[in-house]
């Protein structure tokens, strides 16, 4: 019973991480002057930066696909594919966490006309960490227990 409760708590942590990461993508990621842009608005600027080729399309598709991927994780967990949901959650956390970590490492550029706004990347990174911790805990929890009965030689 104890591991079932632990796995449920881990799934809850993973769900909170998914929601936190998605919310973080809508927070400010870039500031220019007094204007801030979320991660999706930053992606729309890729044409101006000359990234309008295949690489830009792949990056955009992956990033925009994070929200549906989070919904897939929840749906898989609801239909009792817990370990598969945790594996997809690890993929989600790795993608969102890597991008958020790179933006966070660049830091808040105070006083610059154009720079990284730290709020979005930090919240997304925190959500990615929670997602990964919850997913690893779900994967390592032992949900099944053997029942030992005596009498059979």
TrEMBL record:
Membrane spanning residue stretches: 7-30, 54-77, 84-105, 111-139
Keyword annotations: Membrane, Transmembrane, Transmembrane helix
Protein origin, superkingdom: Bacteria
Name of the protein described by the UniProt record: Tryptophan-associated transmembrane protein (Trp_oprn_chp)
Species for this entry: Lentzea alba
